[in-house]
Specification:
Length: 581
């Protein structure tokens, strides 16, 4: 049974009473601001001239604080990733402005990431002008014919919660309200709106019936469902929770809900491919990142906000445990296949439901709590042993690098991660504990962390933001564009590249499928890069602090210097040459 919870409306139901005879472009800008949008992450084109003129006119009139700041991004992928990062930190919908079909295409994998991560982003894209002459905004350049396509929204439709084309005389305020409402409500994610230059240039009147924007999401389970879950928990000797997304904003209250539940029930907690910190990683009941430990040892497994709870690989996931799913969208309609065996599903907010159970639960058997604490202790001991072995061998591995980074992480640090095969080392060695201190892209689009780190810094200027990326991810991010974005908007981040000089994920996947094959025997030569590169070089275009590190003894000093630079307002990039994990 689902429950609908509604936040306080974001804007009043009546439109603003200022000048009604304004262009649609100005109404868009003012309406975004009235709905709480503070920034528009924009990659501009010839189709945005009405918006640029409107913004300049508003500023000249001394009303610049009544429209969002326009953050000019050197590439659309960086713009979308920055908006995603900002939304992940704040929980608030962000706006991205791109131009026509080619700009939409450049959103690329960043649109996929926002879709899979549930990041609320409103994309406003221009359309080629529809008139050849006679109107403000008519075609005046050959590019306006090149950019005219039959179905521009079709480029991204599968990744969107809602699509629309603005057409006058409709009030843009309603297009803004409706789009932001759809982006932020469960299941949250991107929306996509198009508009031609002619449409944006039209004068429009406000609509007196414009409704307030809602943000609708599920509440906790109903009384019967809560009672059933209580019964299952009380009967379980070793309950466990598998989660990926429960720590999303508002992070503090949602992480606290899981902590209270785990401590009340004695449950072990697995973070399975987490998009954010879901449970303090130094907690005695954090049993790691492999769901097999829960499936093997638990007698009750609760799937709380997770899209892919495990890999369904035959005997590897055989379990006698009862599996209960708590999720606002339990059938996962955005996934063509979802073959996970679940005994019971509760369509509800997982954090609210677990919190309600924790509030009503009395004392529980200490056996489960003690068991999971032993499992967690063994996991940490294994991680410490791996680190000691690498240190003693004087190796510069992802494990050694991650341990060094742990020393520069404090309570105000935000880690934005996109390191792929170095991820296990990062997760095991960097002991993050604060809600909202860790974010991952949520999808498969490499390069996200470059722009996302800048977006996170803009959202939380007082935080030290550290982006941890693989060499492939760093290159995919358009690093020069990200460096320029960070410098231009005073959003310095520290980027640490786990540089293993190749495509380690490709090698690993190939040898896993063909362990005795010819490619494995040759060490998959296509996965390796022989050319020596300084991956910090792209950041030098903005005079960032850069350094290449290939000696583990250099790490402490290199990290200290980089932190000093970032804390002083200068972006920093360290290219660390690590061994393949």
């Amino acid at each position: 049974m689902s429950h609908v919870g509604e936040t306080t409306p974001v804007s009043p139901s009546e439109p603003d009473s200022t000048n009604a005879d304004r262009t649609a472009a100005e109404r868009f800008l003012r309406s975004f601001h009235r709905q709480g949008v503070t920034k528009i992450f924009a990659n501009l084109g010839t189709d945005h001239t009405p918006l640029l003129e409107a913004a300049a006119a508003v500023r000249r009139a001394g009303e610049g604080d009544e429209i969002p700041d326009i953050v000019s991004c050197p590439h659309e992928f960086a713009a979308m990733s920055a908006a995603h990062g900002h939304a992940a930190v704040t929980g608030d919908p962000q706006v991205v402005l791109v131009h026509v079909d080619v700009g939409t295409q450049n959103l690329g994998a960043a649109m996929h990431n926002a879709h899979r991560a549930g990041a609320p982003v409103y994309v406003l894209a221009g359309l080629a002008p529809v008139t050849d002459a006679g109107h403000s905004g008519s075609r005046d350049h050959p590019v306006h014919y090149f950019q005219d396509v039959f179905d521009q929204p079709g480029i991204v439709r599968e990744y969107c919660r809602w699509t629309d084309q603005y057409r006058p005389p409709a009030d843009p305020a309603e297009t803004v309200r409706r789009g932001l409402e759809r982006a932020a409500s469960e299941p949250a994610g991107p929306v996509y709106v198009t508009a031609t230059r002619e449409a944006l240039s039209e004068t429009v009147d406000p609509t007196p019936t414009t409704a307030a924007r809602r943000r609708v999401g599920p509440g906790g389970a109903d009384g019967d469902e809560t009672e059933r879950l209580l019964e299952l928990v009380r009967d379980a000797e070793r309950p466990a929770v598998i989660t990926s997304d429960i720590g999303r904003a508002p992070a503090e209250e949602r992480v606290d809900a899981l902590v209270r539940f785990a401590e009340a029930t004695g449950a072990g907690v697995v973070e399975q491919t987490p998009t954010t910190l879901c449970f303090p990683r130094d907690h005695e009941q954090h049993v790691g990142y492999d769901p097999a430990v829960a499936l093997e040892h638990a007698d009750l497994v609760i799937l709380a906000d997770t899209d892919v709870p495990w890999i369904p690989d035959g005997d590897a996931v055989a379990t006698d445990a009862a599996v209960v799913q708590i999720d606002p969208d339990p059938t996962k309609p955005a996934f063509p296949r979802w073959p996970f065996a679940v005994d019971e599903s509760i369509q509800a907010d997982a954090a609210a439901t677990l919190s309600a159970v924790a509030d009503r639960l009395g004392s529980t058997d200490e056996g489960g709590r003690s068991f999971w604490r032993r499992v967690a202790a063994e996991r940490r001991a294994d991680a410490a042993d791996r680190l000691s072995a690498d240190v003693e061998a004087d190796r510069l591995t992802p494990t050694v690098l991650s341990d060094a980074i742990d020393s520069i992480v404090d309570e105000g640090t935000i880690v934005v991660e996109d390191a792929v095969t170095s991820r296990p080392a990062i997760m095991s060695q960097i002991q993050l504990a604060e809600p909202g201190s860790y974010f991952w892209k949520g999808g498969a689009g490499l390069g996200w962390a470059g722009g996302a780190g800048v977006g996170a810094k803009l959202a939380s200027p007082d935080s030290r933001v550290i982006s941890l990326v693989g060499d492939g991810s760093y290159l995919f991010a358009n690093p020069s564009a990200c460096a320029l974005l960070a410098a231009e908007y005073d959003a310095p981040t520290l980027t640490v590249v786990y540089d293993n000089q190749g495509w380690n994920a490709v090698e690993g996947a190939t040898t896993a499928q063909y362990p005795d094959g010819a490619a494995a025997a040759d060490a998959v030569p296509e996965s390796r890069i022989e050319t020596t590169m300084d991956l910090s070089a792209p950041a030098t275009l903005v005079d960032a602090h850069t350094r290449v590190v290939d000696d583990p003894d250099e790490l402490p000093g290199a990290l200290a210097d980089a932190v000093e630079a970032v804390d002083g307002g200068t972006p920093a990039v360290l290219d660390v040459k690590v061994e393949r994990p």
